[in-house]
Write a structure and sequence with these properties.
Number of domains of chain A: 1
Order of helices and strands of chain A: HHHHEEHHHHEEHHHHHHHH
Distance between the termini of chain A: 58 Å
Number of strands of chain A: 4
Helix content of chain A: 55-70%
Largest interface: A-B, 116 and 96 residues
Number of helices of chain A: 16
Radius of gyration of chain A: 23 Å
CATH class of chain A: Mainly Alpha
CATH topology of chain A: Ammonium transporter fold
Oligomer: homotrimer
CATH superfamily of chain A: Ammonium transporter AmtB like domains
Largest sheet of chain A: 2 strands, antiparallel
Shape of chain A: globular
Strand content of chain A: under 5%
Structural class of chain A: mainly alpha
Strand order of the largest sheet of chain A: 1-2
Amino acid sequence: MKTFGKISGIAAALTVAALPAVAQDGAGAAPSAVPTDTVWILNTLLFLIGGFLVFFMAAGFAMLEAGLVRGKNVAMQCLKNMALFSIASVMYYLIGYNLMYPLGNWSIGTDETGGYLGAFATAVLEAVGIGADSVDDYGYASTGSDFFFQVMFCATTASIVSGALAERIKLWPFLIFITILTGIIYPIQASWKWGGGFLDTQFGFLDFAGSTVVHSVGGWAALAGALILGPRLGKYKDGRVHPMPGSNLTLATLGTFILWLGWFGFNGGSQLAMGSISDAADVSRIFVNTNAAAAAGALAALVLTQILYKKPDLTMVLNGALAGLVSITAEPLTPGMGWATIIGAVGGIIVVFAVPFLDKLKIDDVVGAIPVHLFCGIWGTIAVCITNPEASFSGQIISIVIVGAFVFVSSFVLWMILKAVTGIRVSADDEMLGLDKAELGMEAYPEFKS
Amino acid sequence: MKTFGKISGIAAALTVAALPAVAQDGAGAAPSAVPTDTVWILNTLLFLIGGFLVFFMAAGFAMLEAGLVRGKNVAMQCLKNMALFSIASVMYYLIGYNLMYPLGNWSIGTDETGGYLGAFATAVLEAVGIGADSVDDYGYASTGSDFFFQVMFCATTASIVSGALAERIKLWPFLIFITILTGIIYPIQASWKWGGGFLDTQFGFLDFAGSTVVHSVGGWAALAGALILGPRLGKYKDGRVHPMPGSNLTLATLGTFILWLGWFGFNGGSQLAMGSISDAADVSRIFVNTNAAAAAGALAALVLTQILYKKPDLTMVLNGALAGLVSITAEPLTPGMGWATIIGAVGGIIVVFAVPFLDKLKIDDVVGAIPVHLFCGIWGTIAVCITNPEASFSGQIISIVIVGAFVFVSSFVLWMILKAVTGIRVSADDEMLGLDKAELGMEAYPEFKS
Amino acid sequence: MKTFGKISGIAAALTVAALPAVAQDGAGAAPSAVPTDTVWILNTLLFLIGGFLVFFMAAGFAMLEAGLVRGKNVAMQCLKNMALFSIASVMYYLIGYNLMYPLGNWSIGTDETGGYLGAFATAVLEAVGIGADSVDDYGYASTGSDFFFQVMFCATTASIVSGALAERIKLWPFLIFITILTGIIYPIQASWKWGGGFLDTQFGFLDFAGSTVVHSVGGWAALAGALILGPRLGKYKDGRVHPMPGSNLTLATLGTFILWLGWFGFNGGSQLAMGSISDAADVSRIFVNTNAAAAAGALAALVLTQILYKKPDLTMVLNGALAGLVSITAEPLTPGMGWATIIGAVGGIIVVFAVPFLDKLKIDDVVGAIPVHLFCGIWGTIAVCITNPEASFSGQIISIVIVGAFVFVSSFVLWMILKAVTGIRVSADDEMLGLDKAELGMEAYPEFKS
């Protein structure tokens, strides 16, 4: 036994305690099989634990973004993150959940062909005090726990957008975009895969926890917005890139650690089951691989920035960790730890090259969300083919393109409409003054002189 | 199945993996019933998970309050939060636990009539390596896990007080108050409901996770203190309210997210059981409703401050989320998501109006603890009647009044005694200088110029 | 029942819901015994939950250290913490895990005599979708969950070192040291106890969760480094100790709360099992004792600094809490809450005296890591004898000495080699300028004037 020493050193050694305990408590020999009610409870528990971990990613994004924007826009960034999460919670309840999981009630399409547009209805939880005979799906988990887990994914997608467009977008148009994104755009494309839609049935698309369905979607929406919104004033002036350093790298570091923590729930919970030995072992593999990929992404960025710039770059290391996490998200189960490490490291490398590449194109992404979530989301989705024999390269590519086209085009149109109707960019004066004073009339750090 | 697409996309589809795994591992067909030992373990696990989440709320309060006080009082606010949590831990062990849960050994009253004063004894955990025949209550959970969960509630009550009285109260008198609050005041009134006391038996009082028992209690204690202590110097001068902006809104935002996270444990754990399908589904409902109410509270405050002040107010949005959480705490189970959303939204609205209302009365509550925890605690306790047919309006109101009167009066007397004996307010010079330099001789941010 | 009142107040009373639910769902009367598959799953779940909590300690260390260094070294401290965790993750996979848990394949020694040097091989997880007949150890838990839990302990050891040596050590030599520490030094000595090595078999050494194996090891490595590295410039000048206050005590407080939270996983998970009533009750005891010791350590430091210095010291209170945690780590199970409180309080007292003691010796430990982790690690390891009758005083002392000698000497030699080959200390100019500007070319708080 791996921990023989540890166990033998304590009074209640496992071989003495756990197994006999069964006998001592039970009616004769303990059976081995997990009762089906217990399976259901354990699956439910996985969603609840996974869900609260993914919830905490909202705090991670808030701290990462608040740390990477300049001091004059910090309070606004906090407000946006609080608001977008709240909007996602409401919209996913009102529209998103059934649009994403129509359970056969497709508005367009069928389960056989794979659907294209889900059902329109608000989410309904199972009744209070329900028994096995009345639960929505006895082979699965409670609907409430499923909703709780899934709403957090919807909110995560929205969080990705806010960082890229920081420091110059108007609050309310941004929140309107988030409303449509979380209520309609995200759920529709997610239904194509996770709701049993056409990408799942016709193209055999594999995306375990959402490198494409969540991360690249946030990335495409952000890219469309960044293109229309344009760069921050002074960012690309006189043919040079002017760095605008984040105001609080400690909080950015904290945010990254929180995101890393939350990702165990994000990927591990996506196993969707923990009620059998097989599933529990798989969840464990996923935890380990997720950690390995994040570590490798951080180290790759650390070494690469040292080589390229002669100095390591903390923000690149942070984004490298996140890049590793996004990269392993499409397939955190089938790789061994070696492949997980490599897949994550490639993610870290991508980010180091992608950030200056975007700057070359004068696409201003304040926190590096597009490199991390879009580029590495694509990479992770392709990397499924390395270790999962069920994946087809063409199916992955086609699905990336279809999801990307749908989200980019619909986001682009939506941003253009918002631009035409309300405007999406604050005035140059407000931007120079900072959104905190201009739009909120308060400052995040009012006492500290800049 | 909701996640058909997701599952079908991974190698180990649930229908292939989970159910057959049972058969493959077990002796013939798997039984459905959860073994009673497993029930006990799962209940225990719920308390442990719920407990560590509620523990983390201590960090949430610390960050929220440290972010909302001025820079010169930040280190003191951190110290108070660390100290009050520690005091609560010790006092609940020494006195509180058995005072709250006398298990029939009432000092005044009986289980039949409902008790008025619990038992005096230190808490005792179950022995090491205990078996089913020796646990304190085989139908429930381990005593250790129960203590762990309950001590966190006691500490939460104390946390509420520290924010309201910040920036002018003396450290040691404050800590003496906390000692009595956590050791005596909180447990006595909590026994009236959760210990099976007279509010429970005679008035049918319903308070699922403590809108009254925890939150309003902290609020009443804070209100009594704020009245006696008086407002900060310069807060209400020349008939005007002078805003004293928080020094670090990023940390206040972080604190709010942490509190939101912890609340899943606070409300979810209060189901007190997770070992049946019914209980696991109920815990899931509670998680979802808790999230919905928080989101709605934040959005209500966002929209309302935009309308009232033409600018959204970040601190109101943060307090709006907390208001939603407090509001749903008395009954997070019976509402559907729609009612949870409405109950939370009303909480957010209450806060937006209550903060200036308190200012009008010249009651200086630094962080908005009284609006959030007292006003919304009352609202949440009344709102039980909306969705829970077992609640009686009169029983709720009477219980609110009895608990409020007991806590407010006993706190008021205690504050007055402390004021007479040691004084509770720092000198005007110390207040102007800041508690960090005056009482601690250190600063939270020594390098940053104010 | 403890929570009679609470339960009776909700619709689904436990006695009504949980037990009948079993009967209603099941085939006749529910059996009591936990099925062996369920035991395995619950043990696995304990490791996963414990593991993510210990993971989060990495964030706690990062915030604690970032808060306690001066502003000019904060970004570097964040980078170091992110990098060392990542390195530990990779090295433990490549070498550490099998070196620590050779499962009989000792390179030197045998299971009978107890081993001295483990096996050299990379870690291998169980296959995807594994069944009961193929898991590595059916009586235990999934290998993946075990690895996940153990890798976090390895990383924790590394985290301890970074704080002590902050503000003057060169990045890359530090990371090389961490590479050897996490890949070789830590796993070898850990194998002596937890891998079933000679300290376990020959000396009956008891160290439940690692007061010695983790904390003192980090402390010894830090002490060796601090001696060779020397104090920060100006710290001990003209025969006086010049305080260099931390730049952000709020983050230090947050870090302490996060560490406290993580410690529930650290100690609770070290029970290694949760699949029986006995184990679940023991985990509960551990949670409670861990909390009690931390609270007592904080309060002891609070009162003692008030007495000694007439002013309480926030950083001492934070370190007092951590000291309590380290002190209870070697034996969090057998004490009652009273002893846990005393053991923790002694830890808090040790720290208050040890910090100035180290300053007297001109050993410059920036964050107090040596008092907390080394001194209290030793105290905690000895304190096992108070409540655990299986502990022998001589066995504990001998083991402390052997582990200490091995780690201190090997670390000392390694630091000396690094000093000779690459140098380990930045130039005086770079130190005055700050590592952030000198080594990273960025600042943590670029906008805030110092």
